C-alpha cells in the first residue's frame, strides 16, 4: 500500500485519538486500550514499509504519548494476555465474520451430505468411521451402553489426550490453508461428513437422544474446529485475494491473522477437553436439565465471544470515535 493511501485510510482515527490526548479528554480505559492496540499495529506497519518517513515519526510520537497516558492510569488489567482476549482479538476478529460464515456453511453442507448418504446407504457410515469403530459401537448399543467408549480411561488422561488432539486438529485445519484454502476446506468437509454420518448412525438405531451426552463437549469442540477452519481460509484467501498488497505481504499478514485466530481457540479446546474428561462419562446419569444446560451454556459462550461481543465492541469504539 502506498504511504498516501495508508495515511488517508487511517488519518481520521489518528486525529480523534490525538485530540483526545492533547485536550485531556477523559477516555474510558477500555476504549483507550482499544485505541492503543490499533495505533501500535499502524506504527508497526509504518516501521516496516515507510522507514524514515514523517508518518512514522508522527505515529511514534503519538504512541509514546498514549503509552504515558495508559501508564498514568495504572490499570491492573493491562496484562497483555488479558488484553488480547478481552480487546485485541474481538476487535480484530469482527473483520473476519464473513469468512467464519463461509467456513460454517461449508461445514454444515458436509454434515448434510453425511446425513443423506448414511440414510440411503448403511455401508456409508463404515466407509467414513471405519469398521472397527462401527462394530464396537453396535456391540455397545446391544449391551445397553452406547456411550461406553467415553467412560474408558482415567479422567485426567482423557482430558489431556483429548485437549492435545483437538489442538492438533485445529492446527492442521489452519496449516492446510497454505494450499490456497483448499486444504482447509477439505478438513472442514471431512469432519462435517463424519459428524453427519455419526449422528445418523445413532438415529438409525433409534437412540439419537443419547448423542446429547456427546454434545456436552462436542458443542465447543465442533464449533472451534469451524473457527480454526476460518483461520486457515483467512491465510489461504490472503494469497488468492491480496487486494492492495503484494501477494507476499498479503500472505504474511493472512498467516499472522490466521495464527491469531487459532491461538484464540486454545482456551476453548481446554474447556472442551475438561468437559469430556470429567463430565461426559457421567452424561447419561445427569439430570436432563443439567446436561442440556451445559450444552446451551457452551453454545452461548461460543456465539457471544466470536460473534456478538466483537460486533458490540466495534460498535462501542465507533460511537466513541464519532462523539
UniProtKB/TrEMBL annotation:
Segments forming a coiled coil: none
Domain of life: Bacteria
Transmembrane portions of the chain: 100-119, 156-179, 186-208, 214-240, 261-282, 288-308
Keywords noted in UniProt: Membrane, Transmembrane, Transmembrane helix
Membrane among keywords: yes
Cited InterPro entries: SpoIIM-like (IPR002798)
Stretch forming the signal peptide: none
Name used for this protein in its record: Stage II sporulation protein M
Organism: Hanstruepera neustonica
